């Protein structure tokens, strides 16, 4: 803790008023999410219509409801050749409701599609576990000014997935159905158009399957239909989220500028802890900046990637700050205020962040031009993803173990130092140190609380996104009532950083002209008015190892 900080010189009364006001603001963040924000995400479910296309897709025409020669019963359909490309599954998004044509809005921010394959049990067309399924997918869009069936191509791709299905023994009869896992189909980083059309073909060459049964689509069994589940962010949640970020951005920016001026006006160089707080405030300002407003009027397919990078930057700086915050109160004077002392500590964060960055750049980066890409769709991609997640998980566990160890050392040092004879020889010194200790304890407890909620929110978001890609897409965290938790955690992170910027800024009451740091080795340093050009570092000196 930088000596002569605002937190050391404010009266208890002022601190109580400030913290009470911030507590009220924190409660307000939770209430806004609970009362005004809907669930973060919603979904629409589409039973894809099977149509017959005699051109087998060679004409390049879009197949939609008005041009569809519908196949009433897929199991009874007799193809004209061995090539089943003449069967095309279509879905127009969004569907109509009560005769009214719904449309997507830029407020939805992203569109995610997962596919459910419906497979019937058959003795003739048998499903083989881990079957490879290949899909020919086209996705088109239509704008308001376009004609009803004037579809423009957004993306086209050949998609390969692994079909995992199970069936109970009692259902192994004609008419029984398999329970198949959801398949990732597409992910769009923005909802730029009001209407979308999806055409899917499953190219099964029955003649080729007789020669090589392991070819794609030869072991997927008897298909009875396709079902598409589309997931998007709720527009109401986006509105609350954007206004929250918009209100916080100028506040964080003003506090950051004020803090920068405070440390820049000192006659000495900023301390390591002061620089760490400055970088933390800067990363929060980048995270809070509501760039999403631009996506309401312009197409920004890279918005998901930018959001992930901003969030990753904030978490990296925040986790690094916690190590420095604890370490600056424990290491001795020969290594204090030196970033090189934390090289080993910070290596966990750098490795974990680097691994997750590689994973995110591969997944989100490729999706910028191929929304049907999934890093999990190929063995090589899956291995890279698993290695990245495994490395980051190991580093995260090691990091938090080390952070907990440092926090325990802080509390142990405080306990030992409080009974030291040095601070009992003067009533003024004892009162000063006791006041600093209590304030430091409060901030440390708030740090632990903020860390817990931040980590929980991060893992909830990751788990919720995994649910959106899996079998729990309809009932996951992000499609439930978790808005209050996310807005509350967002408010807590902002309040925490604002407290650090305000309370750890150098106080100009006594130390504006300070040119050096000194240790409090005796009472005269506090009481002697001649020491006006030095800066006291009471808390750091107090928490130096007890063996000093």
TrEMBL record:
Residues 234-508 form the Wntless-like transmembrane domain. The chain crosses the membrane at residues 15-37, 240-260, 272-293, 313-331, 343-362, 384-408, 440-460, 480-504. Residues 50-233 form the Wntless GOLD domain. Coiled coil: none annotated. It holds the Pfam family WLS-like_TM. InterPro entries: WLS-like_TM, WLS_GOLD, Wntless. GO terms for biological process: Wnt signaling pathway. Keywords: Developmental protein, Golgi apparatus, Membrane, Transmembrane, Transmembrane helix, Wnt signaling pathway. It is a multi-pass membrane protein. Residues 529-548 have a biased composition (Polar residues). GO terms for cellular component: endosome membrane; Golgi membrane. Residues 527-548 are annotated as: Disordered. It is found in: Endosome membrane; Golgi apparatus membrane. One of its GO terms (molecular function) is Wnt-protein binding. PANTHER family: INTEGRAL MEMBRANE PROTEIN GPR177 (PTHR13449), PROTEIN WNTLESS HOMOLOG (PTHR13449:SF2). Belongs to the wntless family. This is Protein CBR-MIG-14.
């Amino acid at each position: 803790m930088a000596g002569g900080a605002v937190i050391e010189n404010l009266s208890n009364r002022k601190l109580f008023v400030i913290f009470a006001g911030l507590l009220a603001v924190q409660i307000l963040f939770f209430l806004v999410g609970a009362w005004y924000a809907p669930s973060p995400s919603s979904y629409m479910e589409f039973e894809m219509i099977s149509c017959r296309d005699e051109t087998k897709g060679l004409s390049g025409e879009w197949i939609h409801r008005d041009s569809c020669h519908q196949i009433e019963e897929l199991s009874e359909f007799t193809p004209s050749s061995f090539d089943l490309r003449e069967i095309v599954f279509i879905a127009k998004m969004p569907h109509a409701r009560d005769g009214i044509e719904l449309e997507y809005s830029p407020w939805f921010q992203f569109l995610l599609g997962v596919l459910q394959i419906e497979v019937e049990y058959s003795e003739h067309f048998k499903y083989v576990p881990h079957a490879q399924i290949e899909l020919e997918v086209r996705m088109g869009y239509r704008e308001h000014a376009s004609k009803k069936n004037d579809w423009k191509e957004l993306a086209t791709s050949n998609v390969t997935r692994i079909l995992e299905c199970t069936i109970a023994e009692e259902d192994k009869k004609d008419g029984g159905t398999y329970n198949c896992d959801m398949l990732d189909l597409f992910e769009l980083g923005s909802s730029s158009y009001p209407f979308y059309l999806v055409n899917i073909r499953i190219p099964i060459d029955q003649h080729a399957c007789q020669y090589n049964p392991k070819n794609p689509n030869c072991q997927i069994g008897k298909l009875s239909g396709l079902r598409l589940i589309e997931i998007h962010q709720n527009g109401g949640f986006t509105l609350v989220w954007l206004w929250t970020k918009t209100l916080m951005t100028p506040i964080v920016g003003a506090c950051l500028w004020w803090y920068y001026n405070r440390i820049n006006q000192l006659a000495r160089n900023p301390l390591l802890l002061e620089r760490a707080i400055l970088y933390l405030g800067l990363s929060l300002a980048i995270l809070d900046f509501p760039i999403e407003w631009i996506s309401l009027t312009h197409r920004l397919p890279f918005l998901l990637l930018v959001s992930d990078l901003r969030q990753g930057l904030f978490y990296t700086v925040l986790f690094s700050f916690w190590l420095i915050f604890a370490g600056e109160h424990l290491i001795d004077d020969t290594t204090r205020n030196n970033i090189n002392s934390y090289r080993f500590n910070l290596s966990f964060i750098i490795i974990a962040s680097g691994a997750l960055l590689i994973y995110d750049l591969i997944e989100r980066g490729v999706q910028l031009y191929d929304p049907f890409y999934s890093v999990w769709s190929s063995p090589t991609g899956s291995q890279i993803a698993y290695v990245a997640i495994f490395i980051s998980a190991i580093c995260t566990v090691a990091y938090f173990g080390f952070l907990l160890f440092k926090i325990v050392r802080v509390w142990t040092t405080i306990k030992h130092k409080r009974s030291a004879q040095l601070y009992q020889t003067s009533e003024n010194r004892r009162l000063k140190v006791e006041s600093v200790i209590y304030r430091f304890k409060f901030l440390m407890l708030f740090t632990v609380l903020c860390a817990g909620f931040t980590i929980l929110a991060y893992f909830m978001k990751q788990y919720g996104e995994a649910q959106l890609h899996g079998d729990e897409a309809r009932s996951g965290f992000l499609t439930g009532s978790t808005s209050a938790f996310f807005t509350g955690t967002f408010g807590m992170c902002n309040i925490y950083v604002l407290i650090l910027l305000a309370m750890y800024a150098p106080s100009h009451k006594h130390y504006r002209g300070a040119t050096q740091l000194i240790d409090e080795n005796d009472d005269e340093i506090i009481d002697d008015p001649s020491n006006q050009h030095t800066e006291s570092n009471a808390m750091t000196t107090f928490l130096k190892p007890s063996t000093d």
